[in-house]
Amino acid sequence: MQAEVKWIEGFKFLGQSQSGHSIVMDGNGGETAPSPMEMVLMAAGGCSSVDVVDGLKSANQAVTVVNAKLTTERRETAPKIFTAINIHFEVSGDNLDEALVAKVTKDSLEKYCSVCLMLGAGVEMTHSWEII
């Protein structure tokens, strides 16, 4: 996998993925676009959400909604790395099996989500879930 990031102006950058997609990032605290750290956080939420949807669908669960709400703790001084991330999954559907929801959310962070596993090497990764 490859990507390229080009400086636009000020602290704006254009990220271009190998698959041909582009996104603007703002190193000025997210003033005009997501900051790079916000992108990392959204990547963790997106990657783990794919696992949760796939896991529930593979188990023949009638899932209709999966929202991942991420919260973090971050160092106060540079480098301002994340020290803890929690992903709270809000899941809706018809007659969802609580045990399966618990399993697929846990398995995502511990076995399948590449982004979370990478972050987990230096960040305390936790999760919670609820069926709505």
Automatic annotation (TrEMBL):
Pfam families: OsmC (PF02566)
InterPro entries in the cross-refs: KH_dom-like_a/b, OsmC/Ohr_fam, OsmC/Ohrsf
Source organism of this protein record: Vibrio thalassae
Name of the protein: OsmC-like protein
